[in-house]
Amino acid sequence: MGTDLHELLKSLRVWDPATTALPPFDPAGAPDEPLPLFAAWFAEAVAAGETEPHTVALATAGADGLPDVRIVMLHGADDDGWSFASHATSRKGVQLAARPYAALAFYWPVLGRQVRVRGPVTLAPPRDARADLHVRSTGALAAALVGHQSEVLPSVEELARASDAAWDRARREPEAEAPTWTLYRLRPDEVEFFQGDERRRHVRLTYRHRPEGAQGERKGGWERELLWP
To answer: pTM here?
Structure first.
């Protein structure tokens, strides 16, 4: 099995020209803030046919200080931060309550692009979490109503029963509330944009925010710098 995996890995290519376009990226023309560039790159990923471009790796730290990571869905990105949601009682919810700092990593291989975001995480007001949940699909509401995320599951049959009941309720009560459902906002201290290059002259542009003011208000804007690939 190990040999088969090794040979399979050797056979794979990164950024195959048959499926990947590596557009040029001139950092000198990048905007002064990262959000407009992220919005532009996200739109270009969608236009290029990237599969599920709104999925993103979320990294947090556990009680032991060790890293933890999973894939979540981006719910929005604006001046309040990059948003995602989960149950406050889930593993990531508990970790964020103890250490409210996280990192995100987007990967759009069809364009050879990555975006890395990291910074402190805050909770959106409950009304925002409810509004966010209720504009999503019936399936999203049903999943939220099931609850028990990250808890030990006795059997798949119990999950099926709970899911069926949640789907029925979601259809009957599209405004039903999931009390532990929480909308999180990561307000970045640092955002990195990575553009792949076929000659491995990758462009890495990093935005770092200057320190906050005494009242927690941001001032001074962003500093930009290039990194070696």
So the answer is: 0.90
